[in-house]
Structure formats: C-alpha cells, structure tokens
Amino acid sequence: MDMDSGDPAGLRLEMLKAHLERSDTSIRAYDDHLYKIKGFAVTACSAATLFALQQKQAAMFIVAALAAVGFWILDANTKTIQRKFIDRSESIEKFFRDADLDHSAADEALRQMRQLLTIPEAFAASGGGSRFAALAKEMRRPGTYYLYVSIVVLVAGIATVIELAK
Questions:
Q1: CA of 113: how far to CAs of 10, 47, 160, in Å?
Q2: Residues 70, 75, 80, CA angle at the centre, nearest 5°?
Q3: From the CB of residue 119, how many other CB atoms can be counted at a distance below 10 Å?
Q4: How far apart are alpha carbons 96 and 69 in whole angstroms?
Q5: What confidence category does residue 122 fall into, taking pLDDT thresholds of 50, 70 and 90?
Q6: pLDDT at 106 > cutoff 50
Q7: Looking at beta carbons, which pairs linking 140-147 to residues 24 or more positions away fall under 8 Å?
Q8: How far apart are CA 138 and CA 128, in angstroms?
Q9: Cα–Cα distance, 138 to 124 (Å, whole number)
Q10: Do residues 27 and 82 make contact, with C-beta atoms less than 8 angstroms apart?
Q11: How many C-alpha atoms does 73 have within 13 Å on its Cβ side?
C-alpha cells in the first residue's frame, strides 16, 4: 500500500482490497470451525449413544439428542457470522465490478468506500432483523439441519428399538 501518495481514493481503494483479502481469510477460517463443530457433534453424540447402549440408560439417549440440538445451534450461530462476512465480501466485490474508478467519479467512489469500510453499520445492515431471527433462519437451512436432525432421528430410533426389545 503506497501511503505517501496524495490520492485519498487510491489509498482507500488499497485499504478496501486489503479488507477484502482479510474477509476471505475469515470466511475460510469459519469453514474450518464449522467442520470441527460437525466432527465434535458426531463424536459426542456417538459416545453418548454408545454409553447409553452399554449402560442401558434411557436418559443418556436424551443427553445425546440434546447434544445434537446444542451443536445444531452452535453450527447455525457460526454460519450466521460467516454469512455476514460473505455478504460483506460480496458487497466489496460488487463495488470493484460496478464502480467507475476514474477521477470523474472519485467523490461517489469515496462515499461508497466509506460505507463499505464502516464495519458495525455494514454488519448490522447485512443481518436483516434480530440476531435470534437470523439464527432461526440459519437453523432452518437444509445444509445446516440435515446432520443434526439425522443424529436426533438415529438416536431416537436406537432408543426405541432398545425399549421395544426389553
């Protein structure tokens, strides 16, 4: 980034490019977090289910199902945060695609860049409603709920078979 240049639009443009790179890094880091959450969910629910089978404790099946629901909420919350980074990155990429970056439009470009670089306002605007509403919306997305609903159904099925076998 050339800090000595007297061109504020050029400096802000470089800052915006750097911010876009950091956002992309954050998005990839959240992908890693989501992968780990899913792994922990499968491990914890499997362990609780196996323990319930071994000890013949029906309460442990409930623990396994509740653990799946807890991981589902954690996954949805993490995806909600990641989605805000994705929305923000898409806005910046759209700016680079659509903006007329010659000097005749410098004032408008600076205004748009200021808006994109204002983190709290941009995050609030991308959320669209309350935090709970965003979380509930994410929990209803098929990519989020398939694993956790499958675990709950599997645990309930095993518990039912065990109870019927008694």
A1: 11, 50, 58
A2: 125
A3: 10
A4: 40
A5: very low
A6: yes
A7: 141/76, 141/79, 144/72, 144/75, 144/76, 144/79, 145/72, 147/38, 147/41, 147/42, 147/75
A8: 12
A9: 16
A10: yes
A11: 8
Q: Which two tokens stand for residue 98?
A: 């659509």
The region that residue 142 occupies, defined by phi over 0 for left and psi between -120 and 50 for alpha, beta otherwise, is alpha
CB 165 within 8 A of CB 126: no
Q: Which DSSP string corresponds to the chain?
A: --TT-S-HHHHHHHHHHHHHHHHHHHHHHHHHHHHHHHHHHHHHHHHHHHHHHHHT-HHHHHHHHHHHHHHHHHHHHHHHHHHHHHHHHHHHHHHHHH---SGGGHHHHHHHHHHHH-HHHHHHHHH-S-HHHHHHHHHTSHHHHHHHHHHHHHHHHHHHHHHHH-
* Amino acid type, 132: F
Nearest to 140 by CA among 85, 90, 79, 87: 79
pTM exceeds 0.90: no
Angle, helices 106-117 vs 119-127, to 10°: value is 70
Q: How far from the centroid of its chain's Cα atoms is residue 86's Cα?
A: 9
pLDDT over 70 (residue 159): yes
